[in-house]
Known about the structure:
single chain; mainly beta; Pnp Oxidase, Chain A; 14% helix
Amino acid sequence: MSPDAPFDSRAFRDALGCFATGVCVAATRDRTGAPVGVTVNSFTSVSLDPPLVLFCLDRAAESLQAFLDSESFTVTMLAEDQREVSSNFALRPTAERWDGVSTAALVSGSPVIRGGLAALDCARHAVHDGGDHVILVGRVLSIQSRADGRPLLYFRGAYGALGG
């Protein structure tokens, strides 16, 4: 492929879709204290010492400003029976995403979704440019996890589950 050839964005998205990911909801509170959340699958650990994680958020996301304004956020790793939660936080209007969702708070006060496999409560550590996305890095303040359950997965544009 020559450097002058047009880039095939669809082929790029299709190739990235071959990487199965877990599904999370990142959450914070806006300036008024209202909960704000969004489904993400661009989540990863960064460092053990200090304990850092990151997720990426589209610059066009309605929730972006709340994450930029807040000093904290949580990431809840969803269980396979939380497909509807994932869809709600990806597709529903921002004001309706929390309807019927049971939450808790850890250290920072940002909301954690009950029933997830794990949740990380984070202080914002850094924000980086990521092209059409913003990379939010958090320092983990507290952890909540359970020993049972299976993850909600996303692969080739659809939800999936572990085999076996």
